[in-house]
Amino acid sequence: MGGGGIISILILCYFKYAEFFRHSFSAIFGEKSVEAEVLLPIGLSFYVFSGLSYLIDIYWKRYEAEYNFLNFSLYIGMFSKLAAGPIVRAGEFLVQVRRYRGICLDKCAEGLQIFVFGLFKKIVLADHLSIFVDDVFFSPSAFDTATVILAAISYSFQIYFDFSGYSDMAIGISKILGFDFTPNFNLPYISKNVSEFWKRWHISLSSWFQEYLYIPLGGSRKGNIRTYLNLMIVMGISGFWHGSGWTFIIWGVLYGIVNCFYRFWSKKIVAEYTNHVFLTIGGQIMNFAMVTIFWVIFRADSIETAIKIWRGMFTLHTGISQMYSWTFFSGACLIAASAAAVLRSKRKHEEIVNGYYVIMDLSKVSSLIIFFTFIGLTILMGYFGNNVFIYGKF
Hints:
Layout: H1 2-29, H2 44-59, H3 69-77, H4 90-98, H5 105-138, H6 145-176, H7 194-200, H8 203-214, H9 224-242, H10 246-266, H11 277-299, H12 303-314, H13 325-347, H14 365-381
């Protein structure tokens, strides 16, 4: 495991972080850096994380090594999950490869629906939001306070619809081909606190860091100080994984600090009050506000730009006023989906709200009408500009 793991990490560090370290050292020592652009292979982070989890699991003897080269290659390079995940574990994937799957009509119907839902999120919601977000983040000082705040909220919506949309499409295509992948998002913006948020956002990455980094470091088993240190390490590395820049490192450190503070504070809260309806709603609003503020530095091209956005959000000033209609439409879609999931979970007496899709029976005429109407609306309302997936560069 050791040699393979080290080689994988070195490859990732070279392609993803060589430029960052070169520019950082040049800035520190005042020397002119030599321009030598390193092209990042598509999906490299997801290649490496899939390979590392496989090597670690083999080392921990969770299952036998895969000796079929084609099966292993398919696990590493499955096209649907290549560009932006989800990070599928070998134990989950290789079992499905080894058994006969075939093409099942029911699976195709489910996969098509999940794919179309993801496509709607991407080209109708996320891509329309990107136009407004790009304009404001390019020149935040030109817009008034309300517009800058709306742009920050819009980016919270954009990155969720963009990334969860990609994950849905990857899961949908894989299901058509006979593979079942675990959902990667579960309504993260209904989270009441930062801990719950990371259990609902990019689930495959969060669980990867917990299982292969946080727990081996000692988790919460070695006292409070060690626990806080482990949280800071994990969130710091998570931020650096997302991008080779100081903005991502600061983003990860901020989440580490908030995670430590929440863990300390949650012990002071009496358990019977944590599920009070007002505390729940208040927690959701406060958590969404915090996440939105943190997304600013994640999106900003530089620390200076992030500071300008934050200053624009928290100081009253005049400028261009633009109440972007797609933000309100996207927010309405998100609220409606969240409310439906909450009501469904209450009806089924589920403790955790499950926001995964309700799949229609396409053998019914009514379901087909709804499905094809939805496809038509997706095509008519879609934005077909030159917009790539946000997480494709990570």
